[in-house]
Amino acid sequence: MQVEVIKATIEQKPVLANLLELYAYDFTGFCDFDIGDDGFLWI
After folding, report:
1. DSSP 39
2. Domains identified in the chain, total number
3. Residue 21: burial class (beta carbons within 10 Å; 0-12, 13-18, 19+)
């Protein structure tokens, strides 16, 4: 399997932000992240 990492464009910023929110949420069982009632990371 070959994986290629490419730089995200500014138009893809909202998609990447949502993916990072989901990633952080998935790790709440292992890390101490502050997740709001809406499911978004509080920073």
Report:
1. S
2. 1
3. middle
- Range picked from 14-18, 19-23, 34-38 for highest mean pLDDT: 14-18
Write a three-state SS string for 8-36.
CCHHHHHHHHHHHHHHHHHCCCCCCCCEC
User: Can you give the pTM of this predicted structure?
Assistant: 0.58
- Give the residue numbers spanning the domain of 36: 1-43
Determine contact, residues 16/7, Cβ cutoff 8 Å.
no
Spatial distance between the Cα atoms of 39 and 7, rounded to a whole number of angstroms: 27
